[in-house]
Each structure stands twice: as structure tokens, then as C-alpha cells.
Design goal:
The chain has twelve helices and four strands; from the N terminus they run ββαααααααββααααα. The strands form two sheets. It has a two-stranded antiparallel sheet with strand order 1-2. A two-stranded antiparallel ribbon has the order 3-4. The longest helix is centred in the middle third of the chain and has 44 residues. About 25% of the residues are buried. One of its GO terms (molecular function) is G protein-coupled receptor activity. Keywords: Membrane, Transmembrane, Transmembrane helix. It is found in: Membrane.
Length: about 350
């Protein structure tokens, strides 16, 4: 396959001259098939994003009402803000990738216009991964150093970590904007010139994407998995030890039930993050080992586009369902939630 997207045929009966005859490459996933898949995926993704934006706004209000004196509350409060940014970028990208807009006879490419805010999406996703990893590490330290964790994770320490994360993401993601520009390109669908998104410095864009999203997301993904496995094993050991040291069966059962709830909540929270981040992590690994899997490849370009949209939708689901965990597992959150919304509804 050459750079123009054609495959050369060896010399034979079909070749009447000494030159190779180029044949167009048939894509693995045709344009019609990709449009059909995108129509279903984006139709589901848009209402999920709308729900997630409102649910995370509720999370922000409740955590603010609970107070930001606890390092965990600060992290969860900022996590909700990062999820709102992620979902806002996702819903804009979803509208831009709708087949109806892509096929429209416009003077600009809707899909390319929405790619301008890609660094905001990837940065907010990475910040969400950072925060999830910080919360996971904090809970691990609560098990290992229960008396020292409050001195390690203070309000000042947590706030400093979050500020450092934001500065790092802005500094590492901003160079991506200097490697792209808008130019007039002739559309293959409408045969008209329109403004499109052009990468003129792919090395800078790739490096910025790698440093700002892929590597942090991969590192946080591994930390959350290892931390969750560690916590589950420690909670099981603690439950067995408390059962042996307990004087009565009733007290033993009570402590055991409490530990089981803690284990289940941790498994549930971690599963949501892992399921949401796994498609992006796997896509990065596959793309690194198989470089032909990219948007501009004539054979795998449509497939790669569909995989990206599905991964973004899964990430949107992960960002939207945290409120169910908080309401189900957190008694303080549930109390403040009822205080804010139930009282207002009764008053109205």
C-alpha cells in the first residue's frame, strides 16, 4: 500500500505495461456501514450526556452543601466538575459526528469543527482519571496507615495536587492546538470546497496526545486496578480477623456486614471507572502496536472512527452514573440530597 491509499498489483496478465496497476483499497468497514453504526451509537450517546450533565451538576451542589473540609469531598467535587466538562465536549462532538451533519452541503465540516475542542475533552478525561486514582490511593493508605493518612492527605495537599493536575493537563494539551489549522479542502462527498481540520504537524499532535491523555490515563488505570485488588484483599483479611476477635456472633455479623458493604462499594466504584476507561486504554495499546489503525487510513479509517465514538460513549456512561453510587452508598450524600431537593419540592 502506498501513501495515496492504493495497492499495487504484481506484474501479470492484467498489467500490459511494465508499470504496476493501482487498485483502490476497499475499506474494512464501508462508509454506509459506518454511518449506520454511528447513527445508533450517537442517538444513544446524546441523551446519556444530557442526563450525565444534570446528574453531575446535582453532585456538585450536594458536595458543596456537604462542605469541602474533607479531602475526599474535595476530590469528588472536582471529579464531578471534570465529568461535566467531559460530557459537554462529548455532546458537542456527538452532534458534529451525526451523519446528517456530515452529509450536509455546508461550507465547513461539522465533524472537523468539533475536533477543535478535543484537547479539552482529553484533558478533562485525564483529570477525572487522576482524581479517581488519588481517591483510590487515599483509601489504600487508610487501610495501611489509618493513623497517619489524615496527616498525608490534608485539604492543602489535595488542593495542591488538583491544581498541579490542571496545570499539567493545560501545559501538555495546549501544544496540540499549534499543530493543527483550518484549510479549504475539496469534500469527497459533495465535491465542494469547505473548511476542514488539517494536521500540519502530526509529530507535535501525537506527542501532545500521548503526554496529555494516553500515558496519564494508562498509569491511572493501572493504579486503580492494583489499588482495588489491594483493598479487597485487605478488607477480607480485616473481616476474618474481626470475626476471630469478636466476642459475640451478633457483633461479628454486624462488623462483617459493614465490611462487605465497603468491599462492594469499592468494587462498584472501581468497576465503573475501569469499564469506562478500558476502551480508550485498549484502543491506545492496539493503535501503538498496529499503526495502520488511524482515521486517515483508507482501509481501517472508518473502523477506527466507529471505535473512537463507541469508546467515547462508554466513557460518557461512566461519567453519568456516579450519582447512583453516591446515593446508594453514601448516607451523608443521601441526606444532603434529600435536604436540598426534597425540601424544595415540598416548599414549592
Amino acid at each position: 500500500m502506498n501513501s495515496s491509499g492504493f495497492v499495487k498489483v504484481a506484474n501479470g496478465a492484467m498489467n500490459t505495461s511494465n508499470e504496476d496497476m493501482p487498485l483502490p483499497v476497499q475499506p474494512y468497514l464501508t462508509y454506509t456501514q459506518s454511518v449506520l453504526i454511528l447513527s445508533y451509537v450517537l442517538t444513544i450517546s446524546i441523551p446519556i450526556c444530557i442526563f450525565g450533565i444534570f446528574s453531575n451538576i446535582v453532585n456538585i451542589l450536594v458536595f458543596y452543601k456537604m462542605g469541602l473540609s474533607s479531602p475526599t469531598n474535595i476530590s469528588l467535587f472536582c471529579l464531578a466538575i471534570a465529568d461535566v466538562l467531559t460530557l459537554c465536549c462529548t455532546i458537542i462532538s456527538s452532534f458534529g459526528n451525526l451523519p446528517a451533519f456530515q452529509d450536509a452541503d455546508l461550507s465547513f465540516s461539522m465533524r472537523d469543527i468539533t475536533r477543535v475542542g478535543a484537547h479539552v475533552y482529553y484533558s478533562s478525561c485525564a483529570i477525572g482519571s487522576w482524581l479517581t486514582a488519588v481517591i483510590n490511593v487515599e483509601r489504600c493508605l487508610c487501610v495501611v496507615f489509618p493513623m497517619k493518612v489524615k496527616r498525608i492527605f490534608t485539604r492543602k495537599t489535595t488542593a495542591s495536587l488538583i491544581i498541579a493536575m490542571v496545570i499539567y493537563q493545560i501545559a501538555s494539551g495546549l501544544p496540540r492546538s499549534f499543530g493543527v489549522r483550518f484549510s479549504w479542502i475539496t469534500s469527497a462527498l459533495t465535491n465542494r470546497s469547505r473548511i476542514s481540520y488539517v494536521i500540519f504537524n502530526p509529530r507535535l499532535v501525537t506527542l501532545s496526545f500521548l503526554v496529555s491523555f494516553s500515558l496519564p490515563n494508562m498509569a491511572c488505570f493501572i493504579v486503580v486496578i492494583l489499588g482495588t485488588v489491594f483493598l479487597i484483599s485487605k478488607f477480607k483479611q480485616s473481616r476474618q480477623l474481626r470475626s476471630k476477635m469478636s466476642g459475640t456472633e451478633e457483633k461479628s455479623n454486624k462488623l462483617s456486614d459493614k465490611d462487605v458493604r465497603l468491599v462492594r462499594s469499592m468494587i462498584f466504584i472501581s468497576t465503573i471507572y475501569i469499564c469506562g476507561a478500558a476502551p480508550n486504554v485498549l484502543l491506545y495499546i492496539i493503535s501503538s502496536t498496529y499503526p495502520s489503525l488511524h482515521l486517515d487510513d483508507p482501509y481501517l479509517g472508518n473502523l477506527h472512527h466507529v471505535i473512537i465514538i463507541i469508546a467515547v460513549m462508554v466513557q460518557a456512561v461512566s461519567c453519568s452514573v456516579n450519582i447512583f453510587v453516591y446515593v446508594r452508598m453514601g448516607s451523608n450524600f443521601k441526606g444532603k440530597f434529600r435536604e436540598i431537593f426534597c425540601c424544595r419540592s415540598e416548599a414549592s
